Amino acid sequence: MELMASALDSWVKEYNEAVKLGDDITAMMSGRNSVPSSGPETQRHTSAIRRKITILGTRLDSLQSLLSKLPAKQAM
């Protein structure tokens, strides 16, 4: 039972981090209007968004993996 709680806690923690990352990406994309349309600042901003999207993809893969490890009764 303790293992289930630990797996569920890990999933919830990973989920919350993924949500925060998604919110960060959304805010950064919304803020693109305040960045010049081209130049180094725009490239840095775009690179930062891409990095966060890559990290989010990794988090989603981790969530899927953690979810598959939960017993069938605990699966969400």
TrEMBL record:
Domain of life per record: Eukaryota
Name used for this protein in its record: Uncharacterized protein
Lineage: Eukaryota, Viridiplantae, Streptophyta, Embryophyta, Tracheophyta
